[in-house]
């Protein structure tokens, strides 16, 4: 089975795939790094069994999905991620306002650096401001990790990356990436929000996004088995270990004797 996932959330998708293959050793899953818009086209053309999305589909896209796939549109939500705005560690900047981000997206200075066109980060931010990605001004460094690693060369720029790029709390690689940048708090309506667990859980961080699966498989085969696994308690434990907010919360009962 093939899963198409944007670079922004490939880590959590790969972790879920590995967890599923441990639970079901006969299963073979390949996670392909695919830009979000391209992944959706791959699903419509049935080149992928499952894709991961973060932005809302338009009514036209939903209609096309239901026409091409011949299934009702039922997004399987499994995690809350976030789009982060980061600066070099040495920067004096600690926060940025929601309005200033919008201004920068319309400025010729191209101060914001995204990980590429057709990417989930760009799509989501554009959708937040009610804009088409093609109408925005920005710079590009290909790949979330590369944005973080190369940002120090551009002291006056702001990188735009996913939380999942370096959210894994027990990963030395993620720790090294976190050490390279400072995450900016977002000011909106007189309040300041950081992308912490509470603000993701309450969806109060302005750029919180919900990750969800779409599949082209209408049977009870491996694709839907993987989706069920990801959304139930075992999969949600994997999501938490990735440093993201679980979408489905399960009560924990403790019996004391």
TrEMBL record:
The keyword Repeat does not apply. InterPro entries: PBP_domain (IPR024370), Phosphate_ABC_transporter (IPR050811). Keywords: Signal. The keyword Signal applies. It holds the Pfam family PBP_like_2. Residues 2-230 form the PBP domain. This is Phosphate transport system substrate-binding protein. It comes from Frigoriflavimonas asaccharolytica. The lineage of its organism: Bacteria, Pseudomonadati, Bacteroidota, Flavobacteriia, Flavobacteriales.
